[in-house]
Design a protein that fits this description.
330 residues, ten-stranded antiparallel beta sheet, Glucose Permease (Domain IIA), 3 domains, 23% strand, 6 helices, two-stranded antiparallel ribbon
Amino acid sequence: MKKRIHYHFNPETLSYKKIEITLADILFKKILPQSTLALFGGIGIFILATFYMDSPEELSLMRQREMLLAEYEMLSNRIAQANVLLEDLQKRDDNVYRVIFEQQPIPANIRQAGFGGVNRYKIHEGYESSSLMINMHKKVDKLAKQLVIQSKSHDEIINLVMNKEKMLASIPAIQPIAIKDLTRFGSGFGMRFHPVWKMWLMHTGIDLTAPTGTNVYSAGDGEVSEIESKYGGYGNKIVVNHGYGYTTIYAHLSKIIVTNGQKVKRGEVIGLVGNTGTSTSPHLHYEVRIYNRPVNPINFYYNDLTPEEYEKMINMQSSNTHVFELDSGI
């Protein structure tokens, strides 16, 4: 191996000293250390670039993710605003529109009902953002279902508006016995002390006293939904379904003139006053029910009474006198 000769000047002796440097010295003392340093430096830079620095693709994905999160927040806010508007519509529907037409409000368990059966969101599972996607789909699906229910309710209200004349004719709005045929008012609607059972019981209708054979009129347009003839209880009874949640009951009849399923008009004679069932005095037991809930019939007498007659009837029925019925419900 050829040697390379170098000289080193000694200032103390003022002379030069020959220094022989071999290729091995150059390799191990200069080249190898520098190469090692460069190698480790490169490795360090690679590690930093790999684990601590984002690639252009990663940076692009991160920007897309941030954009999607921003879109998600915006959509969530819009859904929240839509829910506020829908809640307002639901409240007005239940407390204004349906009240005007005397319809039952839509139960909360129907408005807020979820989706049963299979997992509707399985396709969105298994991703990093699965919870966000599933949550968004649930919000949208719930909003969509509530909108469908509200839309159907509005369709029902519109139908009631379009058929207002038919509805008004169907509401039980006349007294089932003509005022001229009445001899007295019997028990009124509400709690009363029963003369037989000696306890306070609810009287779900009113009693109109008239001679046996007096005409009994249908209080509104409708269809005869039930006819019953028996010794106890109501005795000979007619139930008329007027639609729109209204039904009326006429009991203790001496004769039933209509048949089951027959269409009747307001003011049409459907039966005759009697003393059948557990009543001991000729009279008509009359009930008005809304969605099968008894209400005071006196509130529906506005088509055939003068203000003076109405006031007189109010005063008479408020005394809650009794016509010696033996049945606790009537």
